[in-house]
Amino acid sequence: MTPVTVRFLGSGDAFGSGGRFQACIHVHSESANLLLDCGASSLIAMRRFGVEPNEIDAILVSHLHGDHFGGIPFFVLDAQLIPKRTRPLVIAGPPGLAARVRDAMEALFPGSSSVQQQFDLELIQLPQRTATEIGAVKVTPYEVVHASGAPAFALRLACEDKVIAYSGDTQWTDSLPEVCRGADLFICEAYFFEREVRYHLDYRR
After folding, report:
1. Measured over all CA atoms, what is the biggest interatomic distance in the chain, rounded to whole angstroms?
2. Are 67 and 39 in contact (CB under 8 A)?
3. 97, 146, 155, 167: least surrounded by Cβ within 10 Å?
4. Domain count of the chain?
5. DSSP SS3 for 35
Protein backbone atom coordinates (compact mmCIF):
# COMPACT_ATOMS: atom_id res chain seq x y z
CA MET A 1 0.00 0.00 0.00
CA THR A 2 1.35 3.40 -1.01
CA PRO A 3 0.85 6.10 1.61
CA VAL A 4 -1.13 9.22 0.75
CA THR A 5 -0.50 12.34 2.83
CA VAL A 6 -3.13 15.05 3.24
CA ARG A 7 -2.10 18.37 4.79
CA PHE A 8 -4.41 21.28 5.54
CA LEU A 9 -2.33 24.30 4.55
CA GLY A 10 -5.42 26.48 4.75
CA SER A 11 -8.87 25.81 6.18
CA GLY A 12 -10.06 29.34 6.86
CA ASP A 13 -12.89 31.39 5.41
CA ALA A 14 -12.75 34.36 3.04
CA PHE A 15 -12.08 36.73 5.95
CA GLY A 16 -9.07 35.05 7.54
CA SER A 17 -11.04 34.24 10.70
CA GLY A 18 -8.78 32.99 13.48
CA GLY A 19 -5.73 33.94 11.42
CA ARG A 20 -6.08 30.85 9.25
CA PHE A 21 -5.11 30.74 5.58
CA GLN A 22 -7.83 30.24 2.98
CA ALA A 23 -8.76 26.86 1.50
CA CYS A 24 -5.70 24.94 0.36
CA ILE A 25 -5.25 21.20 0.91
CA HIS A 26 -2.06 19.44 -0.16
CA VAL A 27 -2.38 15.83 -1.34
CA HIS A 28 0.89 13.98 -1.85
CA SER A 29 1.83 10.41 -2.70
CA GLU A 30 4.53 8.59 -4.62
CA SER A 31 2.82 9.41 -7.91
CA ALA A 32 0.72 12.51 -7.15
CA ASN A 33 1.40 16.00 -5.86
CA LEU A 34 -1.57 18.34 -6.03
CA LEU A 35 -3.69 20.97 -4.31
CA LEU A 36 -7.38 20.82 -3.55
CA ASP A 37 -8.35 24.48 -3.94
CA CYS A 38 -5.95 27.40 -3.99
CA GLY A 39 -7.34 30.36 -2.06
CA ALA A 40 -5.80 33.82 -2.33
CA SER A 41 -3.38 33.20 0.57
CA SER A 42 -2.23 29.76 -0.63
CA LEU A 43 1.22 30.71 -1.90
CA ILE A 44 1.99 32.21 1.51
CA ALA A 45 0.68 29.07 3.24
CA MET A 46 2.78 26.81 1.03
CA ARG A 47 5.93 28.73 1.85
CA ARG A 48 5.04 28.82 5.55
CA PHE A 49 4.68 25.04 5.69
CA GLY A 50 7.50 24.08 3.34
CA VAL A 51 5.51 22.87 0.34
CA GLU A 52 7.40 23.64 -2.88
CA PRO A 53 5.02 25.21 -5.45
CA ASN A 54 7.21 24.14 -8.35
CA GLU A 55 6.62 20.48 -7.46
CA ILE A 56 2.82 20.74 -7.64
CA ASP A 57 1.48 18.99 -10.74
CA ALA A 58 -2.21 19.93 -10.52
CA ILE A 59 -4.68 22.22 -8.78
CA LEU A 60 -8.25 20.93 -8.43
CA VAL A 61 -10.76 23.72 -7.82
CA SER A 62 -14.10 23.12 -6.11
CA HIS A 63 -15.72 26.46 -7.00
CA LEU A 64 -14.97 29.92 -8.25
CA HIS A 65 -14.86 32.07 -5.13
CA GLY A 66 -11.65 33.97 -4.39
CA ASP A 67 -10.96 32.08 -1.16
CA HIS A 68 -10.88 28.86 -3.18
CA PHE A 69 -9.28 29.83 -6.51
CA GLY A 70 -7.90 33.35 -5.97
CA GLY A 71 -4.34 32.14 -5.39
CA ILE A 72 -3.99 30.82 -8.93
CA PRO A 73 -2.83 34.10 -10.55
CA PHE A 74 -0.08 34.38 -7.92
CA PHE A 75 0.82 30.69 -8.31
CA VAL A 76 1.13 30.96 -12.10
CA LEU A 77 3.13 34.20 -11.99
CA ASP A 78 5.45 32.77 -9.34
CA ALA A 79 6.00 29.65 -11.45
CA GLN A 80 6.88 31.77 -14.45
CA LEU A 81 9.23 34.22 -12.75
CA ILE A 82 10.85 32.60 -9.70
CA PRO A 83 11.77 28.95 -10.38
CA LYS A 84 11.18 29.49 -14.14
CA ARG A 85 9.05 26.37 -14.16
CA THR A 86 9.24 23.95 -17.10
CA ARG A 87 7.12 21.03 -15.84
CA PRO A 88 3.45 21.06 -16.96
CA LEU A 89 0.70 22.36 -14.67
CA VAL A 90 -2.94 21.27 -14.84
CA ILE A 91 -5.71 23.35 -13.28
CA ALA A 92 -9.12 21.67 -13.31
CA GLY A 93 -12.50 22.75 -12.02
CA PRO A 94 -16.05 23.78 -12.82
CA PRO A 95 -17.40 25.37 -16.02
CA GLY A 96 -16.13 28.91 -16.40
CA LEU A 97 -12.77 28.14 -14.78
CA ALA A 98 -10.60 29.27 -17.70
CA ALA A 99 -12.42 32.58 -18.15
CA ARG A 100 -12.48 33.32 -14.42
CA VAL A 101 -8.75 32.60 -14.05
CA ARG A 102 -7.98 34.78 -17.07
CA ASP A 103 -10.13 37.62 -15.72
CA ALA A 104 -8.52 37.36 -12.27
CA MET A 105 -5.03 37.45 -13.77
CA GLU A 106 -5.90 40.54 -15.80
CA ALA A 107 -7.48 42.27 -12.80
CA LEU A 108 -4.47 41.61 -10.56
CA PHE A 109 -1.60 41.72 -13.07
CA PRO A 110 -2.72 43.36 -16.36
CA GLY A 111 -1.26 41.61 -19.39
CA SER A 112 -0.27 38.49 -17.45
CA SER A 113 -2.91 36.22 -18.98
CA SER A 114 -1.48 36.71 -22.49
CA VAL A 115 2.14 36.00 -21.57
CA GLN A 116 3.44 32.72 -22.97
CA GLN A 117 4.74 30.60 -20.09
CA GLN A 118 7.75 28.34 -20.48
CA PHE A 119 5.63 25.48 -19.17
CA ASP A 120 2.46 23.86 -20.47
CA LEU A 121 -0.53 25.28 -18.60
CA GLU A 122 -3.73 23.31 -19.14
CA LEU A 123 -7.08 24.47 -17.78
CA ILE A 124 -9.67 21.68 -17.77
CA GLN A 125 -13.43 21.91 -17.29
CA LEU A 126 -14.47 18.85 -15.30
CA PRO A 127 -17.63 17.05 -16.50
CA GLN A 128 -20.13 16.32 -13.74
CA ARG A 129 -20.29 12.81 -12.32
CA THR A 130 -17.59 11.62 -14.71
CA ALA A 131 -14.15 10.46 -13.63
CA THR A 132 -11.37 12.45 -15.29
CA GLU A 133 -7.76 11.29 -15.18
CA ILE A 134 -5.35 14.02 -14.17
CA GLY A 135 -1.90 12.57 -13.96
CA ALA A 136 -1.98 9.66 -11.53
CA VAL A 137 -5.34 10.56 -9.98
CA LYS A 138 -8.97 10.31 -11.02
CA VAL A 139 -11.31 13.10 -9.98
CA THR A 140 -15.10 12.98 -10.13
CA PRO A 141 -17.10 16.17 -9.46
CA TYR A 142 -20.62 16.31 -8.05
CA GLU A 143 -22.61 19.54 -8.19
CA VAL A 144 -23.46 21.00 -4.80
CA VAL A 145 -25.41 24.04 -3.57
CA HIS A 146 -23.19 27.10 -3.30
CA ALA A 147 -23.78 30.26 -5.34
CA SER A 148 -20.52 31.32 -7.00
CA GLY A 149 -21.53 32.42 -10.49
CA ALA A 150 -20.84 28.92 -11.85
CA PRO A 151 -21.60 25.37 -10.72
CA ALA A 152 -19.93 24.49 -7.43
CA PHE A 153 -18.47 21.02 -6.98
CA ALA A 154 -17.73 18.50 -4.31
CA LEU A 155 -14.80 16.38 -5.47
CA ARG A 156 -14.12 12.66 -5.16
CA LEU A 157 -10.47 11.89 -5.70
CA ALA A 158 -8.98 8.44 -6.28
CA CYS A 159 -5.27 8.50 -5.47
CA GLU A 160 -3.18 5.33 -5.27
CA ASP A 161 -5.50 2.89 -3.44
CA LYS A 162 -7.23 5.62 -1.43
CA VAL A 163 -10.34 7.71 -2.00
CA ILE A 164 -10.57 11.27 -0.69
CA ALA A 165 -13.92 13.07 -0.72
CA TYR A 166 -14.08 16.86 -0.41
CA SER A 167 -17.34 18.76 0.05
CA GLY A 168 -16.03 22.16 -0.98
CA ASP A 169 -18.53 24.79 0.21
CA THR A 170 -22.19 23.77 0.19
CA GLN A 171 -25.38 23.61 2.14
CA TRP A 172 -26.82 20.14 2.67
CA THR A 173 -27.49 18.32 -0.59
CA ASP A 174 -28.22 14.68 -1.36
CA SER A 175 -25.12 14.46 -3.55
CA LEU A 176 -22.86 14.53 -0.46
CA PRO A 177 -23.52 10.89 0.56
CA GLU A 178 -22.68 9.88 -3.02
CA VAL A 179 -19.42 11.80 -2.93
CA CYS A 180 -18.21 10.27 0.33
CA ARG A 181 -19.63 6.74 0.10
CA GLY A 182 -16.81 4.29 0.85
CA ALA A 183 -14.17 7.04 0.98
CA ASP A 184 -11.10 6.67 3.19
CA LEU A 185 -11.34 10.35 4.14
CA PHE A 186 -14.23 12.83 3.90
CA ILE A 187 -13.17 16.47 4.17
CA CYS A 188 -16.33 18.39 4.99
CA GLU A 189 -16.71 22.10 5.66
CA ALA A 190 -18.40 23.40 8.80
CA TYR A 191 -18.77 27.17 8.78
CA PHE A 192 -20.33 27.48 12.25
CA PHE A 193 -21.04 25.02 15.07
CA GLU A 194 -24.82 25.14 14.91
CA ARG A 195 -25.81 28.41 13.25
CA GLU A 196 -27.30 27.70 9.83
CA VAL A 197 -25.99 29.85 6.99
CA ARG A 198 -27.29 29.57 3.45
CA TYR A 199 -24.94 27.76 1.05
CA HIS A 200 -22.83 26.36 3.91
CA LEU A 201 -22.85 23.46 6.38
CA ASP A 202 -22.62 23.72 10.14
CA TYR A 203 -20.92 21.25 12.48
CA ARG A 204 -24.12 20.03 14.10
CA ARG A 205 -25.72 19.21 10.77
Report:
1. 48
2. yes
3. 97
4. 1
5. strand
| pTM assigned to the model | 0.96
Name 132's bridge partners.
139
Q: Using 70 as the pLDDT threshold, list the residues of the chain that sit under it.
A: none
Is residue 16 one of the residues assigned to a domain?
yes
- 146 inside domain: yes
Q: What is the pLDDT at residue 193? A: 81
In a domain, 198, yes or no: no
* The dihedral sign for the CA sequence 47, 49, 133, 60: negative
Range of the domain at 57: 5-187
For residue 85, give the nearest of 63, 40, 61, 52 by alpha carbon.
52
Task: Flag whether 102 is in a domain.
Answer: yes
The per-residue pLDDT for 113 is 92
Which residues, 6 or more positions from 53, have their beta carbon under 8 angstroms from its beta carbon?
Answer: 43, 46, 75, 78, 79, 83
Residue 20 sits in a domain of what CATH number? 3.60.15.10
Q: Give the phi and the psi of residue 10 in degrees, each rounded to 5.
A: -150, 135
| Dist CA 118 CA 85 (whole Å) | 7
Confidence at residue 1, expressed as pLDDT on a 0 to 100 scale: 73
